[in-house]
């Protein structure tokens, strides 16, 4: 397990936390409900959070740091997200919400997955859905220029929830989220 201090050092060197590591330290931890959830990608396109892998902040030496859980939109990802919500309580972690990352390009979610998402949503105070991004799949590095609008809304919602001034000095006025609630 990598400690919080090691993550900060790696983030300062650009090796681990990417653009998501701010100079004043992370404001939240990205926590994967399972491997391959999208934690690293989100930490690269949404500044302010640090990639904690599957560890909660208390496990990595950063008690008190809130978390944002990330999962894929498939059945296993949603089950893992429900289990992760239960695990958060054992570490006394404030969970800001869940980011559900599309596991494939689709216009309509199958009924069984829609029902699983409905159950999962009840375990979190906020939920954001990220669409499939073909550019990322084909190797383009995640960046604001190739990110969907939902990424910007996630940034606004998280920075607003933590009462932080938005990067670039933009207003914190909520703009009708894409959280799917």
Descriptive overview:
33% of the residues lie in helices and 14% in strands. With 181 residues, it is an alpha/beta fold. It has one domain: 3-Layer(aba) Sandwich (Rossmann fold), CATH 3.40.50. Strands 2-1-3-4-5 form a 5-stranded parallel β-sheet, with helices on both faces. Strand 1, helix 2 and strand 2 form a beta-alpha-beta unit. Helix 3 packs parallel to helix 4. The N terminus and C terminus are likely disordered.
Instruction: Work out the helix count.
Output: 6
Which H/E pattern describes the elements? HEHEEHEHEHH
List the quaternary state of the chains.
single chain
Count of distinct strands = 5
List the helices and strands and how they pair.
Elements: H1 4-12, E1 28-32, H2 39-45, E2 49-51, E3 67-72, H3 75-90, E4 95-101, H4 111-121, E5 127-130, H5 134-137, H6 149-161
Parallel strand pairs: 1-2, 1-3, 3-4, 4-5
Helix pairs in contact: 3-4
In short:
The protein is α/β, with parallel strands linked by helices and 181 residues long.
Please supply descriptive tags for the structure shown above.
6 helices, disordered N terminus, five-stranded parallel β-sheet, alpha/beta, 181 residues, Rossmann fold, 33% helix
